[in-house]
Amino acid sequence: SAVISQKPSRDICQRGTSLTIQCQVDSQVTMMFWYRQQPGQSLTLIATANQGSEATYESGFVIDKFPISRPNLTFSTLTVSNMSPEDSSIYLCSVDKGASYNEQFFGPGTRLTVL
Amino acid sequence: QKEVEQDPGPLSVPEGAIVSLNCTYSNSAFQYFMWYRQYSRKGPELLMYTYSSGNKEDGRFTAQVDKSSKYISLFIRDSQPSDSATYLCAISNTGNQFYFGTGTSLTVIP
Prior knowledge:
The complex is a heterodimer.
Chain A: E1 4-7, E2 10-13, E3 19-25, E4 31-37, E5 43-50, E6 56-57, E7 68-72, E8 75-80, E9 89-96, E10 104-106, E11 110-114
Parallel strand pairs in A: 2-11
Antiparallel strand pairs in A: 1-3, 3-8, 4-5, 4-9, 5-6, 7-8, 9-10, 9-11
Chain B: E1 4-6, E2 11-14, E3 19-25, E4 32-38, E5 45-51, E6 54-58, E7 61-66, E8 71-76, E9 85-92, E10 98-100, E11 104-109
Parallel strand pairs in B: 2-11
Antiparallel strand pairs in B: 1-3, 3-8, 4-5, 4-9, 6-7, 7-8, 9-10, 9-11
């Protein structure tokens, strides 16, 4: 498994501002993922972040709105830019650390409220 | 059609009951099946992982996959109040594409 921490754990932000969420893993991993979890909905994949390359974004998510950094094999950041109340959600990072590389382990999440 | 469907509940059972949680999926190409448990204000925690068909047991938990019906189940025996959480099913393939159910909220009443 993997131990994953996220900062901040929660935040309340004003419309139009940006927030950067940090994700730290206790061991080196190739793939890191960023998800959004809205009440009553499935986990929605925002993007996949591999070290040394540009993040791959899912349909409906763009780099200008959700820029991602992956400077090394244990760390990633997700920025939520120019926020609106619709961005209020839980943001989760995860890593693929299973022996079969088909198991994902999640961080505790960042609970974001945009006023 | 969603890749995976899960009844959101909520489900409320008395302590000691057997709980059955279920998901259906649409694409027979998926080979990996997972159950996650998510406590309130926490990230999802991997509970059970199954490859292909069959059953897998871990303590009070049993994961079952029926690929012919595209149906996956999680059984919890002797349920405890500490099992109260949201349970998410997930499916994936060798291409590292993951699809998650919406989650079933479970409350075990002492």
